[in-house]
Design brief:
The protein has helices spanning 9-21, 24-29, 82-95; strands at residues 33-35, 46-56, 65-76, 105-119, 126-138. The chain is an alpha+beta fold. The longest helix has 14 residues, at 82-95. Strand 4 (105-119) and strand 5 (126-138) form a beta hairpin. The chain has a single domain, classed as STM4215-like (2-Layer Sandwich), CATH 3.30.2000.30.
Length: 139
Amino acid sequence: MTKTRESSILEIAYAILATLNGNTHLVETHACTSYDYVPELTQEPYINLDNPTETPWDCLNYEYGERVTYILHIWSLYRGAKECADIIAHVKELLDDQDLTITGYDHVLTRVDYSNIIRDADMLHYHGIVSLSLNVVQQ
């Protein structure tokens, strides 16, 4: 049977969400839950996993490798950027250069490419942005 390339986007999303939502400090201390789809009337702060991209990453002995990027959007109503900054710092601890269990894939690397905080146009929300890139190889 010939092996075919499969998309890792959903399995990576599940791994990221499990890591973030499984962390007691993030969930209890910051009362911050992470979502792929944010339900209506969700209380801030929360993290929304968004904007996946997927490109082939076949190199050396890695057949069916992929480089996947995700953007994490952190939304906060805290007066000032502190809450977003604290959550971003914790997200970096949990994900940057850490091993993830991704069903059907060997995890090679996760990196935080950049992060920033902006004031939303509504002038009420602070919006933290974290860009992640992951390299995986299909099993």
